[in-house]
Amino acid sequence: MYPVITISREFGSGGHSIGEKVAKKLGIPFYDGDIVTQVAEDSGYAKELIEEQGEYSSSANKWFDISAASAMYFQSPQDEIFIAQKKVILKCAAEGPCVIVGRCADYILRKEHIHCLNVFIHSDMEHRKERVLQRYGSIKDVGIEKRLAKKDKQRKTYYKYYTDQNWGNYRNYDVALDSGMLGEETCVDIICELYNRKE
Amino acid sequence: MYPVITISREFGSGGHSIGEKVAKKLGIPFYDGDIVTQVAEDSGYAKELIEEQGEYSSSANKWFDISAASAMYFQSPQDEIFIAQKKVILKCAAEGPCVIVGRCADYILRKEHIHCLNVFIHSDMEHRKERVLQRYGSIKDVGIEKRLAKKDKQRKTYYKYYTDQNWGNYRNYDVALDSGMLGEETCVDIICELYNRKE
User: Fold this and answer.
1) Distance between CA A180 and CA B197 in Å, rounded?
2) A182, B194: Cβ pair inside 8 Å?
3) Chain B residues within 8 A of A181 when measuring between CB atoms
4) Whole-prediction pTM
5) pLDDT in tens, B86-141
């Protein structure tokens, strides 16, 4: 049996919801928001900052722009958050089977040789738009497609920065599923089946 | 129900074998080598040339090096093979549910708005090496890893040239599976389940 299921996901693909349902169906803990709470306690940073900087590179985060030389001497808030998140993720994995969403968990656990079922959830733009509109209502000023593209870019940049690998590259996942084409329930069932099959 | 299952695969990932088993289990035709035979009949080109140039760009294929201007006036053997393959693929799909392996079938059918279950099969280098050694025996002169990397590169280049898209990009597939991690039988079962679930 896999000890941990990691779920990486495009913004608006339903990865969070799929992960939550998988955990419920398998009767194992689900970690997404809980990680933020724990990191806030451990690091002292505000939850909002952790949510903002714990998965996304941001134009507001000047640390991504500083030179490599400077980066050797300073640790940015984002770096501190990454390190605190890593500790929490390793702690979660050590406690037993669970589902962890996002936050480079696939990479962090692979580096520690913890055998995971690594899942990537993506979807076409139409289904993502529909889901985001249902969840957050209309998004003012910036068009929704632009917002989704920006979120993708920020996650990609964040992942690249901390793992030196490409987010969404098939090599990093045991299974990648298109939740728009397959539907959320099918994704949940397939992940549970894969998890249960593994000895 | 999906009319067609397309299987794109890394060399040595077992995609051919998985596709064959899926077709058998679902009781639908399987097209891989048969496409080559049909294209040979339609185009007059030798089977060996079609096998060599029907999925791979090759350093021996000088047509990939000619300028765009020249390409407007000349049709290379590879272009003729691509066009003949496309006709055969569309004919196969028109005849009913089936499994088609490789040859940009996912792209060709998407352009014609034929709803497919698009599958990508990949695997880690260790499992691919093992499979290729079992199938072809030892490979002289060039190391096996080099050979696999070259095959990947040739398929990528071929796909890029004819589709202007990136081979292996998750957006092009409903499901991507790591056959090395999951095992061949699990991949077969998952694909059949996805196929049967779709109305």
Assistant:
1) 14
2) yes
3) 174
4) 0.89
5) 999 999 999 999 999 998 999 999 999 998 999 999 999 999 999 888 887 766 55
